[in-house]
Amino acid sequence: MYRTHHCNQIRKEHIGEVVTLSGWVNSTRDHGGVIFIDLRDREGLTQVVFRPEESAEAAKLSHSLRFEDVLKITGRVAERLEGTANDKLATGDVEVVVQEVVVISRSEVLPFQLDKELSNEDLRLKHRYLDLRRPRLARNLQMRHRVAKATRDFLDEEGYLEIETPILSKSTPEGARDFLVPSRLNPGHFYALPQAPQQYKQLLQVAGVDKYFQIARCFRDEDLRADRQPEFTQVDIEASFVEREDILNLVEGLLGRCFKEALGVEIPTAFERMTYQEAMDRFGSDKPERRFGMELIDLTEELKDCEFRVFSGAVSNGGVVKAINAKGFADISTGQIDKLTQLAQEAGAKGLAYIQARGEERTTWRSPFVKRMTDEEIEALRSKLGIEAGDLILFAADQWTDACEVLGRIRLAVAELRELLKGNTDLDFLWVTDFPLLAYDEEEERWHAVHHPFTRPKAEDLEKLEAGEFANVRAEAYDVVLNGHEIGGGSIRIHEQGLQQKMFEALGISQEEQEAMFDHILTAFSFGAPPHGGVALGFDRLVMLICGEVSIREVIAFPKNNKGIDLMSASPASVDFKQLRELYIRSVAKEKKAEDATESSS
């Protein structure tokens, strides 16, 4: 047998027993010929001691052991000598005096140390199997398991059935770019990996399943960032004969169970509700971080006639003027102002107007435009923004959505610069509701669905949809937010064939395209579809927040890097010509590379 106990199991009650442990050499210490080793497995550490008088052979072998060798040791549990106990370890009161040791596997010198944080993420990902030996990442994987188990247990208790849906499906325009899979048996045809099981879970409701869930793998071919991967996991939920409140209450209960099981934390299960309009107006984001102030203040009426044309011009064009007060940040450096200005420009603004209120009087205010403001306008700023000596005021003047989004980004950047959330462990849950159903894409000159094309319009806005007033139609959609992160979103769905066709028409999908891409779901809706709705929770992001990480890569066993590459297995990789030929595919990239090589040689 390899072990009688794991390495975090030995306690005082085992003193005098002979035990067998297996694991990795975590550290070694030589105390005058007596070798101490911390032996590690998934559960933790146990100190083992090699004494010549106990076993000369084992003691001799111990001098050749090094980090990450895999050992099996058998020995007697003893109490540590007085003054040597380690209260930081659960096993810190005892040690195992080795009687026999077997070296199961030797380790080469590691490419990096496991007991130190490594800034080179590519090196970590290349040797991910070593990186996962770190206690922090090992803990994250265990936490992920506990959250998944809590999810399954809770939804099972609520009567939901776990049902798998296809991975090879059909490409339909639902938002992000699809990953395509060629079909060898059907030349020239392609499957798509699912961005989400959206249509399948709705079809399950037509099938009478009533309550469905799945911890589903999803795929999106899009640019990556800290909390985005090309393949990810979501908790997918759908139910029939439900209204919005049913889904919201279910999710609150589910999240309460997950945090309780994972962290032992009780969270309030009646989250605050806020409309999309209010969230954008106050925080400049549809996933607002509310654990610090600095809310957006509307100054449109006060500055509509301002001599500073950036403000008055925006208002005359139907826009707004908004500002935030970064209290006590008037000593911001020029370099920091430049960084904030660049961020505003990246968000679509032409620049960033500001006032550094270095004193009480306007003569002490540093700003490129204050001298062009009237006393009344200055007093309006003081009153609405609560300006005091030492404050920094930042402005945005544009169309409502653009102004809100610009200041929303600036607000978060200032909070980061000032470390306003450092050490803050509060859990701020929030529902954002009543999103716009459609948004206009200026570049493509067409409307697209804010969530997806199966989202139901609010009943009171159906007439506006019929009349083509798409900008004023709200959706029966909702997002759940935690500390500025969207951790899930859903909606009540369209279940009528006619209304679904109208939605497709609003999106510019012709009758022929509807039949080619969505005939299966439109036909299903003609056979008695129940009203239904659901939600999808970002499982990776949820676990990331529970673990206190800032990237979902830290809670995924084998993630891709920010270029979508698995450095450990070197994928994606080129494939043999014969494989491509069987799929009736020709590699244009490979041909172009060959042409370039020929041209350069000639």
Oligomer: single chain
CATH topology name of the largest domain, in short, is: BirA Bifunctional Protein, domain 2
Number of helices: 18
Question: Biggest sheet: strands side by side, in what order?
Answer: 6-9-10-22-21-20-17-11
Largest beta-sheet characterization: 8 strands, mixed
Q: Which term fits the overall shape?
A: globular
Query: Care to count the β-strands?
Result: 22
State the helical fraction: 25-40%
Q: Give the name of the CATH architecture of the largest domain.
A: 2-Layer Sandwich
Radius of gyration (CA) equals 30 Å
Account of the protein in words:
The protein is α+β, with helices and mostly antiparallel strands. It has four domains: 12-105, Nucleic acid-binding proteins (OB fold (Dihydrolipoamide Acetyltransferase, E2P)), CATH 2.40.50.140; 137-275 and 429-555, 2-Layer Sandwich (BirA Bifunctional Protein, domain 2); 292-417, GAD-like domain (Gyrase A, domain 2, 2-Layer Sandwich); 572-602. The protein has 18 helices and 22 strands. It has helices at residues 56-62, 121-126, 128-131, 135-157, 198-206, 244-263, 276-283, 300-303, 309-316, 334-346, 375-385, 400-417, 462-466, 497-506, 511-524, 539-547, 577-582, 588-601; strands spanning 18-31, 34-41, 44-50, 70-79, 94-105, 161-162, 180-182, 190-192, 211-219, 231-240, 272-275, 297-298, 320-326, 353-357, 365-366, 391-398, 429-433, 438-441, 446-449, 477-482, 485-492, 532-538. The strands form five sheets. Strands 6-9-10-22-21-20-17-11 form an eight-stranded mixed β-sheet, sandwiched between helices. A five-stranded mixed β-barrel has the order 1-2-3-5-4. A five-stranded antiparallel β-sheet has the order 12-13-16-14-15. Helix 10 (334-346) runs antiparallel to helix 12. The N and C termini lie far apart (67 Å). The mean pLDDT is 94.
